[in-house]
Design goal:
With 122 residues, the protein is an alpha/beta fold. It has one domain: Dna Topoisomerase Vi A Subunit, Chain: A, domain 2, CATH 3.40.1360.10. A four-stranded parallel sheet has the order 2-1-3-4, sandwiched between helices. Helix 1 runs antiparallel to helix 5 and helix 3 crosses helix 4.
Length: 122
């Protein structure tokens, strides 16, 4: 299966399952909305404990899509720990897929990345 097909399949699962997705900022949110994902919470310079509280009040399952850079990994580790302690299951599958099988490192670029890797159709 091609990388673009795998990403599209993962995105369709997120949409079908209606999972809440946490991202760092508004550009990340807009990029995911372009792909059809609508249940999104952003950090937007809010304190982590407030974001965690917000998620705990909304769902028992979520996906954390912080950027795949050093700062994003740090945020992921902290938020994942906080949510897990409060009984929220964090789905790591899509994040791990992006990290291991793509060159994408900034979530805000996901829509452009997918467009770039799509096979040409003649």
């Amino acid at each position: 299966m091609r990388e673009s097909e795998e990403i599209q399949e993962q995105i369709e699962k997120i949409i079908e399952q209606g999972k809440l997705v946490l991202v760092e900022g508004i550009k990340d949110k807009r990029a995911l909305e372009q792909l059809g994902i609508i249940r999104i919470v952003t950090l937007r310079r809010r304190a982590i404990y407030k974001v965690v509280e917000d998620i705990v009040n909304k769902t028992k399952d979520c996906i954390i899509l912080t950027d795949l850079d050093k700062e994003g990994k740090k945020l992921y580790k902290t938020i994942n720990s906080e949510l897990s302690q409060r009984g929220v299951r964090v789905d790591k599958h899509f994040r791990n897929f992006l990290f291991k099988k793509t060159k994408l490192r900034q979530i805000e670029g996901i829509a452009n990345y997918i467009e770039r890797i799509k096979p040409f159709i003649f």
